[in-house]
């Protein structure tokens, strides 16, 4: 049997979709690693779990030992692909189409979800941009810091819309134009899945609730790690 110690400091490719947790006990899903993603093993804990870092977005977490068989040693390290702002702009219709197609599939809001069909808010944004090769950071507040801040007057389809508290962004959606945005929202305050809402006090209760938490807008100008 291969010891977990042999996995430390190596980079691997996921051969199936994997769950990444907040604790080595497998508690609290924080993100997912889709098939083909790269991860690096940082440390181990009592042959039960591995502390890992997902290479594309630098996200940390714990992978359970039972998932070792789903890792394959990478032939080469993950390499960031660069995109110009114009290249990203040209691909935004595909990004938008990804979210609309995702909405058509039966889905529910999954905290930590980044793999179809169930996403959290920032997981949907990350997956949508990943579909055209552009990486975003994992969480909403990280995505807000990564994007170029713009005004409402500058807002275009494909820009990100951020919501939350005064301290930081806690929710994110994708602008569709005409003051509408698509997002994955929770069951308690939202639609328990992917839906379209309005940036207006004139919408339904869900739209109004999020509009009251509006923080601002951001434009994706590069792929994460490429600047």
Number of helices: 4
* Count of strand segments: 15
Secondary structure: helix percent = 10-25%
What is the 3D form? globular
Strand order of the largest sheet: 10-15-11-12-13-14
Structural class of the secondary structure composition?
alpha+beta
Poorly predicted regions are none
What portion of residues belong to β-strands? 25-35%
Which helices and strands appear, and what pairs or packs with what?
Elements: E1 11-14, E2 18-21, E3 29-33, E4 38-45, E5 49-54, E6 59-64, E7 71-73, H1 85-104, E8 114-115, E9 118-119, H2 121-130, H3 140-146, E10 148-150, E11 160-164, E12 169-177, E13 180-185, E14 193-198, H4 205-211, E15 214-219
Antiparallel strand pairs: 1-4, 1-7, 2-3, 4-5, 5-6, 8-9, 10-15, 11-12, 11-15, 12-13, 13-14
Helix pairs in contact: 1-2
How would you describe this structure in keywords?
227 residues, alpha+beta
Structure, described:
This protein is of the alpha+beta class and 227 residues long. It is 19% helix and 33% strand. The chain is built from 4 helices and 15 strands. It has helices at 85-104, 121-130, 140-146, 205-211, and strands at 11-14, 18-21, 29-33, 38-45, 49-54, 59-64, 71-73, 114-115, 118-119, 148-150, 160-164, 169-177, 180-185, 193-198, 214-219. The strands form 4 sheets. It has a 6-stranded antiparallel beta sheet with strand order 10-15-11-12-13-14, sandwiched between helices. A 5-stranded antiparallel beta sheet has the order 6-5-4-1-7, with no helix packed on it. A two-stranded antiparallel sheet has the order 2-3. A hairpin with a 7-residue loop joins strand 13 (180-185) and strand 14. Helix 1 (85-104) packs across helix 2. The protein is globular. The chain starts with 10 loop residues before the first strand and ends in an 8-residue tail after the last strand.
């Amino acid at each position: 049997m291969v010891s977990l110690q042999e996995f430390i400091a190596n980079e691997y490719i996921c051969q199936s979709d994997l769950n990444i947790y907040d604790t080595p006990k497998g508690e609290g899903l924080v993100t997912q690693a889709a098939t083909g993603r790269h991860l690096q093993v940082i440390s181990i804990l009592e042959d039960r779990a591995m502390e890992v870092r997902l290479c594309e977005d630098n996200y940390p977490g714990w992978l359970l030992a039972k998932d070792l068989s789903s890792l394959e040693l990478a032939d080469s390290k993950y390499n960031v692909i660069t995109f110009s702002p114009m290249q990203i702009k040209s691909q935004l219709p595909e990004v938008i189409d990804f979210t609309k197609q995702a909405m058509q599939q039966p889905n529910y809001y999954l905290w930590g979800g980044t793999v179809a069909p169930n996403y959290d808010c920032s997981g949907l944004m990350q997956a949508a941009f990943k579909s055209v090769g552009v990486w975003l950071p994992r969480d909403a507040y990280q995505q807000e810091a990564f994007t170029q801040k713009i005004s409402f007057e500058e807002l275009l389809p494909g820009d990100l819309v951020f919501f939350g508290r005064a301290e930081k962004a806690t929710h994110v959606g994708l602008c569709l134009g005409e003051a509408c945005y698509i997002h994955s929202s929770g069951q308690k305050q939202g639609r328990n899945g992917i839906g379209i809402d309005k940036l207006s006090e004139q919408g339904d209760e869900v739209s109004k609730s999020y509009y009251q938490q509006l923080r601002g807008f951001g434009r994706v100008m590069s792929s994460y790690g490429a600047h």
